[in-house]
Each structure stands twice: as C-alpha cells, then as structure tokens.
Structure prediction request, 300 residues.
Amino acid sequence: MKKTLEHLPEHKQQDIQAIADILRDTVDEFVAGKSGKQSGFKIQKIILFGSYARPPSAEGKPGWVYDPAHGYISDYDILVIVNRMELVENLKLWKLADDRIKRRIEKIPVGVIVHTLKEVNQWLREGQYFFQDIREEGIELYSIDSRELSVPGNLTDEERREIAQKHFQKCFQNANEFFFVYETALNKGWLNNAAFQLHQASERFFACTLLVCTNYLPKTHDIEKLCHFCAQQDERFLQLFPKENQFHRRSFHRLRRAYVDARYSEHYEITVEELTYLSEEVEKLKMLTEEVCLERITSK
Prediction:
C-alpha cells in the first residue's frame, strides 16, 4: 500500500496528517487510565482513500474537486482500522473525534469509517470490491501492524452483476415506497412526518447507489455524508441539494435533522415550501440513482 501524499498540495497534506493525529490522540486519551478490555483498545491502521488518494490524470487533472462556489467539494475519506469491535461501536468516542476534526478542518468535509481488521480482511476475502479499491488505491497514513491487508478474493463478473442487481431491486423499490409515503403525508398536512419520509427516501436512494457500485454501505443516517460517498462513484451527486443561498442551506439542514428531530423534537419545524423544494431535489436524486445503478449493472 502506498505511503506518500506527494501528489497533493502541501496544505492538503497537512490537513490529512492533522486528521490522522486527531484520531490517534482521541483514542489515546480515551484509553489512558482505563483498565480491562478498554486498556487494550488500539488504532491499527489509518488509511486515506477516495478522491484524495488518487493520483492526477494523464492530463494533470487532480482526482479531487474543490469548487465551493457551486458546492462541489470532495471529502477527505478515511478508513480507521481498530483491534476491537467494542471500539468500533463506541459512537460517543468517534463523535468526539469528528467534532475535533471539524474544528481543525473547516472547509473540507471529512468522512471517517471505522472497522476492525478482522472485518476488513473478511470482506476482502469475500471479494468485497469497496475494500478492494481501498487496498489498491489507498494511502497508509499510520500503522502499528506490519501485516498487509488480506489478498482479495475474486468474484466473477456474473457474480458481481447478480449482487448489484439484487441490491438495486431491493433498495430502489424501498426508496420509492418512502417517497410515495412522503407525498401522502404532505397531502395530509403532516409536515414532520413528511420530512422524515423524505429523509428516508433520500437515504435509501444514496444507499442504493453505494450498494450497487461498491457492495458496501457506511453505518450512518447522515445524508450529507452518504451524498459525498456517492460522489466518489459519480461527481454528478455533488450537484444535488445545492448550497447557493440561505433557503437551500436551511432546507437541506432541516432534511438532515429529520431522521431524529422530525420524530422526537417538539422544536422541529419545516415548511411546505421547503418540502416542495427538497422533494424536487430528491426526484433528481432518484433519476440519477437509477441512471448510475443501471450503468454499473450493465458494465459489470
């Protein structure tokens, strides 16, 4: 696995190293003074993957996008490999790390996924192509484990196509069902319920794309993070839910919050105007999801 960031500008190298340092420091602080199992919690590897791990094209075009004027910004994508499942599942710890990273890296979204070494190696042996790409293209930022990731198993083209087709049939239908229920709730005037259903439709369309294209789905309900993961597969996803004005930003923020707050918060609010605009964006998401997924299925 590669270990250099030399293809990136110096300030981006500094950003990425800062992310790795924050992740390590946060775990080290948590472990300090602990006893029992928790005293043995460790980060084994930190790997950069996705847009910033890719070298420039033959024409010199970078693999990443930074166009804040139009809301097109590639994430720093980081895989953290740890030694215990209990550490993976410590959501409070990773939320703390995420908050610290956001304070340090203000202009670039950062996507962190956390898995055990056992999980990653098992998925590689099973031919899980999301992790195959990370193994082939990723850049190792930190490692205390000299072992290489497992050699990937080989799925036939037909097996890949069959897996992708099953994901598409299940997820696309599921997303459409949530979209239908959203329209019913909106017509009834149940605005908070409509917001939740629209969030779920969005989440399922993003999930459909990721499962078809990578056979992997991050453990998150954050539709902004899912959108950026999808943009690794097709940059057109960055054109969805633009942030060009306050109305756009406020509407999307309320949709992001809808997974929890639309159901449980007495202070949550959303308007018909905002929902109407958001549903138009979700319709675009639906069309793009179908196009990208069918292209991938036929090309596998």
Notes: The chain is about 55% helix and 10% strand. The chain has a mean pLDDT of 93. The chain has two domains: 10-143, 157-298. Strands lie at 43-49, 66-67, 72-73, 76-82, 110-116, 139-143.
